[in-house]
Amino acid sequence: MNSALPQGLQTWLADHGWTVLSSEPLTGGFAASLFALCARSQSGAERNMIYKQLAPGRSDELHVYSHLLPKLGGYAPAALAFIDTPREQGILMDHAGATVKSLLLRKDRVGQQAILTAAITWLADLHVRYAERSQSWLQAGIVGLYPFESSWTYAKEALQALTWLVAPLRPGSIVDVYILSEIGAMMEWFYPRYPGFMAGRTTITHGDPHLENLLFWHGRFCFIDWEYTAVAVPSRDLAILQQDVLDDDMRHSLRTVYWDHLRQNGWRVDEDAFEIAYQACLFDNTLMMLGWEVSKFRNGHLNQSEIEVIVGTKLRWLRESFRRLL
Q1: Where are the alpha helices (DSSP H) in 130-228?
Q2: Closest to 237 in 3D by CA, of 263, 260, 258
Q3: Distance CA 4, CA 10 (A)
Q4: Is the model's pTM score more than 0.85?
Q5: Where are the domains of the chain?
Q6: CATH class of the region 7-94
Q7: CB-based burial of residue 222 (10 Å sphere; 0-12 exposed, 13-18 middle, 19+ buried)?
């Protein structure tokens, strides 16, 4: 037994004849507890795996992995086991490579553009391919509609996270009480209207496809962290994937590539409705991701210069989207 691994996982590995060769916890500001391990089966085959021990009260991903993802082909790492006990819930899956965000750090701008273009095309293909089937999955209860009620909750948490920034970044803070008041007023106007902005054709959406949840391995992409998957307008995923792309020209280029791919594959795009939904999703997800970025900063996963760039850029995005929605 390896004492560093959660007990439920240890029990499953022993019961199925796996010998752990190495293991280590993964850090990076994740909500769940992640462990990388290499194990040998009874037949002598070695396998690299990731175990995701779910945070208390956040077990929806077990349902998604067992009921939805088998229908989506290779869009997620293969699940090897589900641990579901009163004390521990988790998913053991194949190791599926490095995050796209980490890969971008090693590339020049041309290389970054190539990877992101391939990724956004792959995302668009997911949306097009399963648009029709997602409606039957919705009716069967395999997946639900976008939970608008949760957005307001996450937005308030994000505003509270930004409040923490006011004091630590003084003097010269890019967040002050006036900015907090401005964001609060935008939220009060936006969230009652949010469902009305999300008009248009729907499909299956991942729900949290930022570039640390998008992996690349041997020429293939896949998504992890399917906790927030839902049937919604595809702009939802597009707006989230772009959260890690702070270069405006590159971000606009990716949006064009995405829309073109939908049109080329027979998706009739109402330009006005699509733009409104996109701006609404961008506002909502930019605010939520701001809260997440502040959390990473507080836990030492971002330095001060990084958080200043991120916050400054995303405050601008919030204002731009808000003006367009007005």
Answers
A1: 131-139, 148-166, 177-190, 194-197
A2: 258
A3: 9
A4: yes
A5: 7-94, 98-325
A6: alpha beta
A7: buried
